[in-house]
Amino acid sequence: MSLSWIDILIMCCYIVAIISIGFYLSKRATKNIDTYFLGGNKIKWYYLGLSNASGMFDISGTMWTVAILFVYGLKSAFIPWLWPVWNQVFVMVFLAIWMRRSNVMTGAEWILTRFGGRGGRYSHIIVISFAVISVIGFMAYFFEGIGKFAIMILPWDLSADLGFMTLTSANSYALIIIGVTTLYTLKGGMLSVVAADVFQFVIMTVSCLIIGYIAYTSITGEQIAALTPAGWDNLFFGWHLDLNWDGLMPSLSDKIASDGYDLFGPLVMLMLFKGIFASLAGPVPSYDMQRILSTRKPSDAAKMSGFTILVLFAPRYLMVAGLAALSIVYLSPQLAGMGANVDFETILPMAITKFVPVGLKGLLLAGLLAAFMGTLAAFVNSAPAYIVNDLYKRYINPNASPKTYVRYSYLASIILVVVGVGFGFYAKSLNSLTLWITSSLYGGYAASNVLKWIWWRFNGYGYFWGMLFGLMSSTIKLVFFPEIADIYIFPAILLFSFIGCFAGTLLTKPDSEDLLKKFYKNVRPWGFWKPIHDKIVAEDPTFEGNKDFKRDAVNVVVGIVWQMSLVVLPIYLVIHNYTAMWITLSITVVSMVILKFNWYDKLKNADKGYEKI
Questions:
Q1: Measured at the alpha carbon of residue 426, what is the angle toward residues 424 and 430, in degrees to the nearest 5?
Q2: Rounded to the nearest 5°, which phi and psi values hold at 167?
């Protein structure tokens, strides 16, 4: 890509500004690990929501999303259900409140409020292990994505022969950008991450609006229809995908077959099945959970999660739709000419090269770098908390000074980045990494973390063995069955995990009654807690359990509809499908009104008794 001096200057100014934020906030952030990792629980919920949205707006994910929209059209809106993308709705409606009531620093520390004894310690260690493994996987994912993106947009050849290994330009760019991100994150901790994320989110939103405007004014709906197969612009589907690219771009038919998505109806049913379990399990121990635990109070945690959905999806998909539409209209001949060698994950940088003018290109590239750096910074800041707070402080040196814990946090961050980058050298593709992390690795997380909320008898041993069986089965899948689409293996992984959960629980004693009563009275989840509920009521007749299951279920369904409408609304706008756009906008408004009265107005009850904890 040919960059003007203006574009390069804009990008350099952005990098300097981000590093400066980290150094400026370093003194405030390093007082102790509570301030370093949680911002002292003083950051306002809407700043945390912007930070969370910025952390989810990663460049690798954006490249992947542009590619699947190009290939699958409107039906691609369902493919992120692999994550599932609507787990944030479950968090918004009730899980954020349950988690924030704990007053802890990490997901691993939270586990000790639920399980006790030796089983609690085992479950504590397995959560730490899961957090570290998932962060290393994401680091490899980021390394692969930013390298592939950078060589398409930056003009310099940075390949080097180091003797013991050869660095490609992609490797070198990835190492530099990851190094800069790690630097400002280490210096400023959570305060730096949130401040930088808010700044980055503004840049990204402006970039999204620019791309959306360029696409909207440069193409017509007729041009899109002429270059895509019948059904590309239709959100709804049958048993089969029924997208025939053979007469337009045969390589796309091969990609659909290799992805394993031709049977789209069964795929969506599997994603829905997986999504319910994975979402009810709650967020994995990473940056999303850290922002929940960083809020001031439970109601703020719920507001933060809802705000994340509102500010993330519509702007992001305006950029995604714009780049995909521009690529279809103007890059289809070039992509078709590549034949079987086409790499659809490079559509994003190719579109930027061709369509974005000087000056705006620098701003957009700064925004995309911001997307990458924000996501990476969130992981770099969150993962060391598990190593320092949950391992070093708890088991090795509980009486060290606050500065010592912060210094060890620096060391833990650096080690995790180095290991993750090392794995990144061997990553085959963004798609393979995405599918393994979302379908296999997270599949092993679901069973234990659903039961921890809803079943009083579930204990630390059951949690440990359920998580261990899940991690083992996901690893077996990765090593021995890499050719099978990960989502189709999820039911087997989930079943294997449940066997570990029930065996570990029923073959050991329940956790102590006092611990269970304290947890239930504090968190107040719904589910199968009647024996514990009755004992608490016998001691305190004024206690009321959680009776909100039906309301929460309704809000989850409405929330998923709301989130999906925010995804497809900008796509309909960009491709000039105004009828569908107005219908979708109406659905968006109606769902928000329902959530206003049935969710937001009820949040005042979330903080009852919280000050007494």
A1: 65
A2: -95, 125
All domains of the chain in start order, with CATH: 5-441+546-612 (1.20.1730)
Cβ–Cβ under 8 Å, residues 250 and 229? no
**φ and ψ at residue 529, rounded to 5 degrees:** -120, 15
Question: Could you tell me which residues come within 8 angstroms of residue 257 by beta carbon, excluding any fewer than 6 positions away?
Answer: none
Here the tokens at position 593 are 């009104």
Give the C-alpha separation, 434 to 432, whole Å: 6
Q: What is the 3-state secondary structure (H, E, C) of 57-106?
A: CCHHHHHHHHHHHHHHHHHHHHHHHHCCCCHHHHHHHHHHHHHHCCCCCC
pLDDT in tens, 229-276: 999 999 998 898 888 888 888 888 888 887 778 889 988 998 898 889
At position 339, the amino acid (one-letter code) is G
Q: Which of 461, 29, 95 is nearest to 305 (CA)?
A: 95
Task: Tell how far CA 589 is from the center of its chain.
Answer: 25
105: nearest Cα among 390, 361, 479: 390
**Is the backbone of residue 297 left (phi > 0), alpha (psi -120 to 50) or beta?**
beta
Nearest CA to 439 among 309, 275, 269, 260?
Answer: 275
Tell me: pLDDT of 430 over 50.
no
CA dihedral for 54, 294, 109, 391, sign (positive or negative): positive
Spell out the alpha helix ranges (H) of 295-359: 298-330, 332-337, 347-355
**Max CA distance (Å), the chain:** 75
Q: Strands 166-167 and 160-161, how do they pair? A: antiparallel
Please tell me what DSSP assigns to residue 174: H
What would the DSSP string read from start to end of 580-604?
Answer: HHHHHHHHHHHHHHHHHHHTGGGGG
Quick check: 612 pLDDT over 50? no
Inter-CA distances, 217 with 67, 130, 412, 463, 578, Å:
22, 46, 48, 54, 15
Spatial CA neighbour of 109 closest among 127, 135, 91, 134: 127
6: region left, alpha or beta (phi > 0 left; psi from -120 to 50 alpha): alpha
- Rounded to the nearest angstrom, the gap between the alpha carbon of residue 195 and the centroid of all alpha carbons in its chain is 19
Separation CA 374–CA 54 (nearest Å): 6
- Calpha distance 366→357 (Å, rounded): 14
Residue 436 DSSP one-character state: I
> Lowest-confidence range among 376-390, 426-440, 451-465, 576-590?
426-440
Residues paired with residue 455 on neighbouring β-strands, in sequence order: 528
Asked whether 473 and 498 are in contact (CB, 8 A), the reply is: no
Spatial distance between the Cα atoms of 376 and 346, rounded to a whole number of angstroms: 20
Pick the closest to residue 260 from 492, 564, 497, 482 (CA basis): 482
State the sign of the Cα–Cα–Cα–Cα dihedral 363, 196, 372, 84. Answer: negative
527 DSSP assignment: S
Split at pLDDT 50, 70, 90, the class of 398 is confident
In which element (H, E) is residue 389 found?
none
| Inter-CA distances, 350 with 148, 306, 343, 565, Å | 11, 34, 11, 28
Consecutive H or E run containing 208? helix 169-218
Ranges of H-type helices in 481-529: 486-506, 513-523
End-to-end CA distance of the chain: 57
Q: The tokens of 85 are what? A: 């993308």
**Which residue, 75, 68, 82, is CA-closest to 434?**
82
